[in-house]
């Protein structure tokens, strides 16, 4: 069996992370494509098209990979460490958020070797509660913002929403783009809004919350739109691109996530800037999560196989991963009463 | 944040061999019974991925050919007189048994042929069953097929099939022949006889009348005796152009009807407005599917000069992720070359490619020590004059050529003695139609490649053969029509 060879390194340029200090200078080299609405439109519409049948066939083929034994154990732990454990309900309370944080720190009370999750994802008014609960655990607080999930509010309100979450200690901001503006072709408006939000992510200490940009693929509707949106948001300085809010009918799918992985790969090849990817919504089973990891592995390779570069936006996924993990270590299936509800 | 990154290695995921119950030896299937060859000769079938002997099979000689043809002739009277609905019942039954036994047959096919289990499981076997279902549906509707009010079968069909898709090529031949009321004598390829013998067992399981299907295992000599036999009314062959020509000479001047599905050197044409990621998948699928042992393989990549570098970079990156190895591992993309002989031919032609000045590239790739293996390979700087641009390699080897305009693409694509298939990659619908009108190839795929369906006719232009298999057109080859 031939091992997967490492994928080709980006031509020439050393890689810099999108959230690092050098990314801005790299993006500036592409300033001409974002210099005007017309230039931006020309650029986005000049990207190669996406053949839906072929894209979905490739995603389906990768879904047939058989991940067993040691590979499965590796993938399950990796998947747990990539989870943005999420609660985004109108009914959220400080108590609910605290219990979720406790679970994120120690997902399996019977097995302390289980990795902790990457982040706890909450609404802005819960960011402070989560920050306090997580303390120095190393788990990030991610806060949705910009009038999530619809994004239908004045820009000043969106920016205040972001500033609020950052001030409350959010390490990561998950913003939604203005899909209305995107679909009506007002790309520059979307671009500028992302730039403004990125600025609002800055903290007084000189650092900044990482910015994840949510497309809401279910509303963008075509794969061509998703590819254009990927480039638009990366050019605007997104640190992560994220499929969806989890609040509409179609959220992350293998095909739309594969397309976004291809986009971050191509973007790094072009600019040297590495951007992360976060599928969110509808990924509930270990089997699904492993399919996504296979897709990462065979599309962008090792460089993205870490919580710094790939996340799952999910809530129920964690328990399924834990049950599978217990099965692998004990040899039998446990059951929902052997993992915690929160 | 924790750094968890390390290599995501897939653990071996072998499909179990236990589902296949292989006997140490197999006889010929004649008149509903397994029997030894009249002269007692046998040969061995190897697993090309390990060189392990899988089973010994009988080597049919002239006497066996005669017995099988006579059995088929006798059975023809009753079989052709059956109402179409009755023949359909048998075909539907065979199709369902194939589905029920598909895991077993997929493993067997991968063992005997060397192709990855992912392909035998997800491509070969579903298509095999689909072919029987499809032609079962035609059996009682032949009067509506456009070949007259009451089209009659031809009689005894001699069918000789290749080793690249043993069971699928059997299905392409046997299903329409039986649906139309013919009886058959089929000779599977020398290196892949086993799935046809399992099919014989399926015929018995389905209660098919004796002599309707006869299977003769053997080599080229057996095939020549079969197609040359006087009692044969129809010859259907899939395989090399060289053998196809010999068959055409043999049957010239006789009453036998012939269909030939021969070699190919298909152009996969990528325009600068193609969906690049999907085009790369299509190029990979076009030439590396089934180790490139595909007569309609997209073995010549014609890429527009303006996107050559971009496409080649992406293609090389993608080729580096192909997993070559154990055909029974569910994660294998490329299995074993079918035989030492075929490996020698691929090796010889690729050496000629280098000698003629083309530049060879293959990803770093560890090949197993036993068995027959060839790494996925591409050649750049290939011109129309190179042997690797003209001759069928029938292996995982892609020749890359460039073009500047659509007219040049058509000219280069058609500049081959073959004409089995072609692929077009562009987002422009009008260009697809313009190109498809001008390409002299039996199948033209648009923004996809190597897609098969029983409803779609398949066959060649020029030295790729004549006659069509599949679809309504496929009935014509087995009906007595002018």
From TrEMBL, chain A:
Ranges in a coiled coil: none
Catalytic activity: 2-deoxy-D-ribose 5-phosphate = D-glyceraldehyde 3-phosphate + acetaldehyde
Assigned EC number: 4.1.2.4
Gene3D superfamilies for this protein: Aldolase class I
Pathway: Carbohydrate degradation; 2-deoxy-D-ribose 1-phosphate degradation; D-glyceraldehyde 3-phosphate and acetaldehyde from 2-deoxy-alpha-D-ribose 1-phosphate: step 2/2
Family from the record: Belongs to the DeoC/FbaB aldolase family. DeoC type 2 subfamily.
Name recorded for this polypeptide: Deoxyribose-phosphate aldolase
Origin species: Streptantibioticus silvisoli
């Amino acid at each position: 069996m031939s091992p997967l060879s490492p994928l080709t390194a980006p031509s020439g340029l050393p890689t810099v992370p999108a959230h690092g200090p050098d990314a801005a200078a790299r993006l500036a080299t592409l300033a001409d494509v974002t210099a005007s609405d017309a230039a931006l439109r020309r650029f986005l519409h000049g990207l190669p098209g996406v053949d839906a049948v072929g894209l979905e066939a490739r995603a389906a083929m990768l879904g047939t990979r058989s991940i067993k034994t040691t590979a499965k154990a590796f993938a399950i732990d990796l998947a747990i460490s990539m989870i943005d454990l999420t609660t985004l309900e109108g009914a959220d309370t400080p108590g609910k958020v605290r219990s979720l944080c406790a679970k994120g720190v120690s997902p399996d009370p019977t097995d302390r070797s289980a990795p902790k999750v990457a982040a706890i994802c909450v609404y802005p008014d819960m960011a402070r509660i989560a920050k306090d609960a997580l303390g120095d655990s190393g788990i990030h607080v991610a806060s949705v913002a910009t009038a999530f999930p619809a994004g239908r509010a004045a820009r000043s309100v969106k920016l205040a929403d972001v500033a609020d979450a950052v001030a409350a200690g959010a390490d990561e901001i998950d913003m939604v783009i203005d899909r209305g503006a995107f679909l009506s072709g007002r790309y520059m408006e979307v671009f500028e809004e992302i730039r403004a939000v990125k600025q609002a992510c800055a903290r007084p200490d000189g650092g900044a919350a990482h910015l994840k940009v949510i497309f809401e693929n279910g509303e963008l509707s075509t794969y061509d739109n998703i590819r254009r949106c990927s480039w638009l948001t990366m050019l605007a300085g997104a640190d992560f691109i994220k499929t969806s809010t989890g609040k509409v009918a179609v959220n992350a799918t293998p095909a739309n996530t594969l397309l976004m992985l291809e986009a971050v790969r191509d973007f790094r090849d072009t600019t040297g800037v590495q951007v992360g990817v976060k599928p969110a919504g509808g990924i509930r089973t270990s089997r699904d999560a492993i399919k996504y990891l296979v897709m990462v592995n065979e599309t962008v390779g090792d460089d993205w196989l870490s919580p710094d570069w790939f996340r799952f936006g999910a809530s129920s996924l964690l328990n399924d991963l834990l049950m599978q993990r217990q099965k692998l270590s004990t040899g039998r299936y446990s059951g929902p009463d052997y993992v915690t509800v929160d | 944040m924790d750094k968890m990154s390390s290599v995501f290695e897939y653990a071996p995921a072998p499909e179990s061999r236990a589902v296949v119950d292989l006997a140490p030896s197999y006889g010929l299937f004649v008149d509903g019974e397994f029997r030894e060859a009249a002269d007692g000769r046998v040969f061995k079938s190897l697993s090309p991925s390990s060189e392990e002997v899988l089973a010994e099979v009988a080597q049919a000689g002239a006497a066996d050919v005669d017995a099988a043809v006579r059995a088929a002739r006798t059975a023809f009277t009753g079989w052709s007189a059956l109402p179409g609905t009755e023949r359909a019942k048998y075909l539907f039954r065979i199709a369902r048994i194939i589905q029920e036994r598909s895991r077993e047959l997929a493993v067997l096919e991968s063992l005997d042929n060397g192709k990855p289990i992912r392909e035998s499981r997800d491509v070969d076997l579903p298509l095999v069953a689909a072919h029987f279902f499809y032609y079962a549906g035609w059996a009682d509707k032949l009067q509506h097929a456009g070949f007259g009010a009451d089209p009659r079968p031809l009689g005894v069909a001699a069918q000789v099939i290749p080793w690249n898709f043993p069971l699928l090529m059997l299905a392409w031949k046997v299903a329409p022949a039986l649906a139309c009321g013919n009886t058959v004598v089929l000779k599977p390829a020398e290196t892949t006889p086993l799935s046809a013998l399992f099919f014989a067992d399926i015929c018995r399981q389905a209660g098919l009348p004796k002599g309707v299907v006869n299977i003769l295992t053997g080599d080229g000599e057996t095939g020549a005796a079969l197609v040359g036999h006087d009692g044969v009314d129809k010859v259907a062959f899939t395989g090399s152009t060289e053998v196809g020509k010999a068959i055409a000479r043999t049957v010239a001047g006789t009453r036998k009807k012939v269909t030939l599905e021969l070699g190919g050197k298909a152009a996969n044409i990528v325009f600068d407005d193609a969906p690049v990621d999907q085009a790369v998948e299509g190029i990979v699928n076009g030439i590396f599917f089934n180790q490139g042992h595909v007569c309609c393989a997209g073995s010549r990549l014609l890429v527009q000069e303006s996107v050559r570098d971009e496409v080649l970079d992406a293609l090389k990156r993608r080729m580096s992720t192909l997993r070559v190895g154990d055909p029974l591992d569910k994660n294998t993309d490329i299995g074993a070359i079918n035989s030492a002989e075929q490996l020698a031919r691929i090796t010889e032609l690729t050496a000629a490619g280098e000698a003629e000045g083309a530049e060879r590239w293959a990803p770093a790739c560890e090949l197993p020590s036993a068995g027959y293996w060839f790494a996925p390979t591409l050649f750049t700087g290939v011109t129309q004059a190179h042997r690797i641009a003209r001759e069928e390699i029938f292996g995982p080897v892609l020749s890359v050529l460039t073009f500047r305009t659509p007219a040049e693409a058509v000219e280069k694509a058609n500049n081959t003695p073959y004409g089995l298939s072609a692929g077009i990659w562009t987002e422009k619908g009008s260009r697809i139609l313009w190109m498809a009108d001008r390409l002299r190839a039996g199948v033209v795929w648009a923004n996809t490649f190597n897609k098969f369906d029983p409803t779609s006719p398949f066959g060649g232009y020029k030295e790729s053969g004549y006659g069509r298999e599949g679809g309504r057109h496929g009935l014509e080859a087995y009906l007595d029509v002018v």
